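User: Run a structure prediction on this.
Assistant: Running it now.
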Amino acid sequence: MGTQGIAAVFVGPRRPLSVEPFVLDAPGPGEVLVAMVASGVCHSDLHVVDGDWARPTEVILGHEGAGIVRAVGEGVAEPRVGDLVVLAWNAPCGACGPCRRDEVWLCRSPRTAGHRLAPEQVRAHRLDGRPLGVYHGTGTHATHQVIDATAAITIDPRTPHDVAALIGCAATTGVGAVRNTARIRGGESVVVIGLGGVGLAALMAAVEVGAQVIAIDSQPDKLALATELGATHVLEPGDARGQVARITDGGADHVLEAIGLVATSELALACVRPGGTVTLVGMVAQAERIPIDGYRFVEDGVRLLGSNYGSAVPARDLPRIASDVTSGRLPLGRLVSEHIELAGIDDALDAMRRRDGARRVVMFAAEGRIRG
């Protein structure tokens, strides 16, 4: 008999997740068994549930989580049993072109690809034996998970569990966009559009390097939090373009779009100075197009970047971010709006649709049981 647990399963677009018992096989060669301690409810989960992104069904959802290693398969030296690990949804293969160029965030064949749907990769099953896939190879909305050992990144055990979960996606995506993709420096002017988990993490990282940060959002509570976190100015979208030009004398050095909407992507391009850089961090729905004034874009010499997973190298960046949390450099705990149980995950998705709060985090007990 394998490890028994509970998981939130994606059964189809615009349908509630199915929170149900399941069984995990023991980890095979190169794999580890993790008892989850926390799992963030990410906007990517919402894109899947709402049908914005086409994804297979009968898959355990979630890709932003942390846990304790409980068993390791043959040949696994790291991580070790008892380690606190963050699950990286993009564990690079190390052999493809992007990996050889040290662009592992663009890996063509990540070890976490395919949602573990191939018969030889299936470790999760319903109680009647039917196989379950695992979203992005991590499936963090579950009490336990078996994953590739390279996707389990050991971090400082002092890291709060809820924050450790967010390092799996939101924190790394936002912090990495500032540090790795845009490479923002102290003294530069930065606009962050969208103050969800990713946007707030980017804001913290920009403040930490000494940038002048302007935050844009439509929610007053998020603007208030941005001020507390060090934003020098907070604006609502409607009058942002003119105010950014006034505050920065013609446009910001950097603009980061962290929502994934066409309108806010256009706003980002309108807020950057000639010669400045726009970094698109949020992901729009599949097949949507962002219009660009080609003449103005070239005339102004604007740089447009896409930031996938914060251009992060998981083995390097995840432990560093955790260290920045425990040292007090990055107050990522401020991202957490609420701790919830797995049974409340659909309510958390509804809250995200309303743009209520930054991040809700499912909390599990250390042995993988739902915390009551």
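Residues 314-326 form the longest helix (13 residues).
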